[in-house]
Design a protein that fits this description.
Layout lengths: L2 H23 L4 H5 L3 H16 L4 H23 L9 H9 L2 H22 L3 H7 L6 H33 L20 H23 L9 H25 L3 H7 L13 H4 L1
Protein name: DUF1295 domain-containing protein
Keywords: Membrane, Transmembrane, Transmembrane helix
InterPro entries: UstE-like (IPR010721)
């Protein structure tokens, strides 16, 4: 069986599961619970297909191992926050309150389930390019693999800093000024974990592009859609999240003015007129 067809079948089953369970349980975080799992399955399907065919599968196995490390880390972080114990993403609850029941169910089916399920396939498809164009693992593969690992470490550090802050906030009775994290990596980016998450998938795209270039193709190929749509999704999600934070915490607007939203950058000083 063509590995892409198998990936699409698995994706269809996963999407159906998420939609049906969201209707049965009346909560919509099921796609969040498989987010860190299904891309690992998809990439290993391509790697296994190359191994079975006897092709040079080094690049694909490395890609699969990297995505597995990403999935293990993200699953652990999601689990320790209670993601597998019935906790729903607070943003879905807010959106549910702003829509009628039928509007939210359309949004649930089209965006939460179908769009995000398709996105999880799309971000995995550089592995399909690597399967189509087997070639020896080279220096560019090593560079982008190391970048992926560096971004993985960055996200791990950011999530750990955020976890410790929220644990300290909980221990303080739910209030810890200014109400949000502004130290560590969060002094350079308001959402460093979001930045590193996206960066990993851009590095993953580059690994697929390396295979195509080694076979005489271009660095630019159609699987860039996955990483690009992921970035669009994260930007939209971040803007929505920040609208909630700025309404909840008066000091958040000052934080927005002084600190980059995603890309870690030096702290911006406020103009003298504002600080006077």
């Amino acid at each position: 069986m063509d590995p892409l067809l198998l990936v699409l079948i698995v994706a269809g089953v996963a999407a159906a599961f998420c939609w049906i369970t969201s209707l049965v349980t009346n909560e919509t975080s099921w796609i969040d619970r498989i987010w860190s799992i299904v891309p690992v399955i998809y990439v290993w399907i391509f790697a296994a297909a190359a191994l079975i065919a006897g092709a040079d599968a080094t690049r694909l196995v490395v890609m699969a191992v990297l995505v597995t490390a990403w999935g293990v880390r993200l699953t652990f972080n999601f689990a320790r926050k209670g993601g597998y114990t019935g906790m729903e993403d607070y943003r879905w609850a807010i959106l549910r309150g702003r829509m009628s029941r039928w509007q939210f169910q359309v949004f649930n089916l089209l965006f939460i389930v179908l769009f995000q399920s398709a996105l999880l396939v799309l971000i995995s498809l550089p592995a399909y390019i690597a399967w189509q164009h087997p070639s020896p693992f080279n220096g560019w593969d090593a560079v982008f693999s190391l970048l992926f690992v560096a971004f993985l470490v960055g996200e791990t550090v950011a999530d750990q800093q955020q976890w410790r802050f929220h644990q300290a906030k909980k221990a303080a009775g739910g209030t810890l000024e200014p109400g949000f994290l502004t130290t560590g990596l969060f002094a350079y980016s308001r959402h460093p974990n979001f930045f590193f998450e996206q960066a990993q998938w851009w590095a993953f795209y580059a690994l697929g592009a390396v295979a195509l270039v080694a076979d005489g193709g271009s660095w630019l190929n159609w699987t860039i859609v996955g990483a690009a749509l992921l970035t669009v999704l994260f930007i939209g999600s971040t803007v929505f999240t920040e609208s909630i934070s700025s309404a909840k915490y008066p000091a958040y607007r000052d934080y927005q003015r002084s600190t980059s939203m995603l890309v870690p950058l030096p702290h911006r000083r406020r103009p003298a007129a504002e600080t006077a």
